[in-house]
Design a protein that fits this description.
The protein is mainly alpha-helical. It has a domain at 58-113 and 138-157. It contains 5 helices and 3 strands. It has a 3-stranded antiparallel sheet, covered by helices on one side. Strand 1 (34-40) and strand 2 form a beta hairpin. Helix 2 runs antiparallel to helix 3 (87-111) and helix 2 (55-81) packs parallel to helix 5. The radius of gyration is 25 Å and the shape is elongated. The protein starts with a helix and ends in a 20-residue tail after the last helix. 30% of the residues are buried. The model has no long low-confidence stretch (mean pLDDT 88). Keywords: Membrane, Transmembrane, Transmembrane helix. This is Membrane protein. It comes from Streptomyces azureus. The chain crosses the membrane at residues 9-29, 63-81, 88-105, 142-160.
Length: 180
């Protein structure tokens, strides 16, 4: 059992470190939400440039799709390396996927534009378009990676995992044990 828990910890850490790559890809591939600043009565106000734009939803969708892809890859790698599976290994895969998603989220936000949009608007000037900070509106997207990894690992284990030996039956008809 100690060896399985140790394996699960290694898997969790390795999978979680993949979150840095996911965060970089999210920052690079996610659409930019355009903002524009204006001065009204001496105060800066920041508005969406396109009020009906879908970029904010695209940011969440990009993270979700990347998370699903990372879940598939991590489940496939873990299954191919440790075919016999086990509960601790699956828990390590799920925990690693969740930690990787959290790390990816924070990495993408850190790499993205600054969070102070008023200061950014002042810097670029009145009426000039700039990008909003990278933020996730749908926090459920953080579960895409661990859920995809769990579902695929379960399917691979069910289809290709080791099997218990079939019980041997006698050739004769079944006989009930004597009743006392």
């Amino acid at each position: 059992m100690q060896a399985e828990v140790r394996e699960a910890a290694v898997v969790a850490v390795a999978v979680a470190l993949g979150g840095v790559l996911l965060g970089v890809l999210w920052w690079w591939l996610a659409p930019h939400v355009p903002l524009v600043g204006d001065v009204a009565e001496g105060n800066w106000a920041v508005y969406l440039k396109e009020t009906e734009g879908e970029q904010a939803v695209g940011v969440d969708g990009t993270f979700t799709l990347l998370g699903l892809g990372f879940g598939v890859v991590s489940a496939l790698v873990v299954f191919l390396l440790r075919r016999r599976g086990g509960v601790p290994l699956v828990v390590g895969l799920a925990v690693g996927g969740l930690l990787g998603s959290l790390l990816a989220w924070r990495t993408g936000v850190w790499l993205g534009p600054a969070g102070d949009v008023v200061a950014q608007a002042r810097e670029v000037g009145r009426g000039v378009t700039f990008s909003a900070p990278l933020r996730m509106g749908a926090k459920g997207a953080l579960l895409a990676w661990p859920l995809a990894a769990l579902v695929l690992h379960l399917g691979l284990t069910a289809l290709f995992g080791p099997r218990d030996p079939e019980p041997e039956f006698s050739d004769g008809p079944y006989q009930a044990p004597p009743v006392a």
